[in-house]
Amino acid sequence: MNEEIIIAGFGGQGVLSMGQILCYGGVMQNKEVSWMPSYGPEMRGGTANCTAIISDEKISSPVLNTFDTAIVLNQPSMDKFEDAIKPGGMLIYEINGIIRKPKRDDIKIYSIAAYDESIKMKNTKIFNMIVIGGFLKVKPILDVENVVKGLEKVLPERYHHLIPLNKEAIHRGMDIIECEK
Question: Would you put residue 88 in left (φ > 0), alpha (ψ -120 to 50) or beta?
Answer without folding.
Answer: left
